[in-house]
Amino acid sequence: PRDIETIPTRHTAFGAVPALEHDLFTNGILYVDLAFDISHVPEEWQPYLPVLGKMMSGMGAAGLSYDEMAKRIALYMGGFGYDLSAGYTVDADGIWQKMIFSFKVLYRNIPEALHTVSDVLCAGDLSDEARMRDLLSERKNNLQASIVPSGHIFAKRAAAAGLQLPAYRDEQWHGRTQLKFVQGLAGQFDIGKKTLVDRLEKLKGLIFTKGNLTVNLTADADGLNRVKARIGELLDRLPEGRPVPKAAGPTLEPRWVGIAVPAQVSYVACAMKAPAYTDPAAPLLMLASREFSNNYLYKHIRVQGGAYGGMSSFDTSLGVFSFLSYRDPHIVETLKVFEDAQSHYARQEMSAAEMEKAVISALGALDKPMDPAGRGYMAMMRHFAGATDPVRQTFRDRIFQAVPSDVKDAVADYFARASSHRAVAVYSAQEKLEEANQRLTEKLRLEKLSDL
After folding, report:
1. Which of 82, 128, 263, 316 is the most buried (most CB within 10 A)?
2. The pTM is what?
């Protein structure tokens, strides 16, 4: 389709709390997202945010133990969880950072579900030390277990973290930095538990206020009317909060890093700063990234290099263009393929057939099927980014209007400027990293993931 798919969205408010309503058929299920702004959280407290989310959603509240709360959540809701997300606005002039609690509930259980969630947010109990220790171990184990199956994602996060603040947050909350942080908390729990609880309590007071909140509701008209009649009971329990300036961010610089992990294969990532979503080059670079993945990287990294996969990613939200390899026997050769791919498409136009495949692939990425919950959530994310329907339509139009020479010129211009400030991260065995460093002109700074 030439036109974008739109998601019905009504902007409203509950008192001073902004809200989004999405009137969609959900078969009697209400989906609620409570998005709290966290851009004012001090830098030294940012690593605690995933731990806070884990504790809030997995411990007791309002005088009930965690198992009693778990039964209550299971009785009234079809799921309750949290997420941490950050990104650029479409013009890259602004950055949003949110902690989002999401739950789904049958219409008949809306009052009980809202009361349960308000207990979690406003009367959460952090006194159960045994449960807290278990949750820290679970968080640590889950992160450790995900590294080898998703090594290319961890490598991408490690490379991109030195380039853009949203990418830095993504790595800090979900990457090796978070793993090391949780390992430290779990390993020194008896010594540091008082400090941990104190930090988490202060974060609760800093984050869970009306002034930080945006409410996102997805249901049909009946469900929306039901939740609007009762949601005040939750909001009234939240303190008003006071305006707090955004916290100063970290100093970023691109780095070359090698992370030693117990794996016989490598995961290689090369990342560069990407232009904003509204930049005319962005749709062309998206087409280039699809062509890289479907053609050049597949041929040279998978077929010829023997890796399980080679791919390219263009992410305007994080502001990063990246090259990745998955379960790769090579490191130095793969980095050379990444460079060769850039120069190849800077010199040579795609054929008409390749261009058509790239367009179809790009549209497939833009038009992924979503259930009602996913559509409501995506509309909220677009709201935070300022990705209005006219802005999205312009991006789509530019994809359809592109010709091979446009892509070639965009690739040549972009990589001529961006590649000199690229960042590289490799997850691999220690000996493979040391061997690669003997051959690389720019050396990897080696580090280990402890406890692995």
Report:
1. 316
2. 0.95
Helices (H), 188-299: 189-207, 221-230, 232-235, 281-291, 297
Residue 450 has what pLDDT? 67
Q: Which letter, b or e, does each residue of 17-36 get, where b requires 16 or more Cβ atoms within 10 Å of its Cβ?
A: bebbbbbbebeebbbbbbbb
CA dist., res. 229 & res. 225, Å (int): 6
* Cα 192 to Cα 171: distance, rounded to the nearest angstrom: 24
Q: Return d(Cα 403, Cα 407) in angstroms, integer.
A: 7
Identity of residue 57: S
Count CB atoms within 10 A of the CB of residue 361: 17
Residue 71 banded pLDDT, cuts 50, 70, 90: very high
The whole-angstrom distance between residue 195's C-alpha and the CA centroid of its chain comes to 28
Write 196-199 long-range contacts (CB < 8 A, 24+): 196/48, 196/51, 196/132, 197/126, 197/127, 197/132, 199/45, 199/48
User: Given this model, what pLDDT does residue 79 score?
Assistant: 86
Q: Is 364 exposed, middle or buried (0-12, 13-18, 19+ CB in 10 A)?
A: exposed
Say what the pLDDT of residue 449 is. 81
Number of Cβ within a 10 Å radius of residue 319: 23
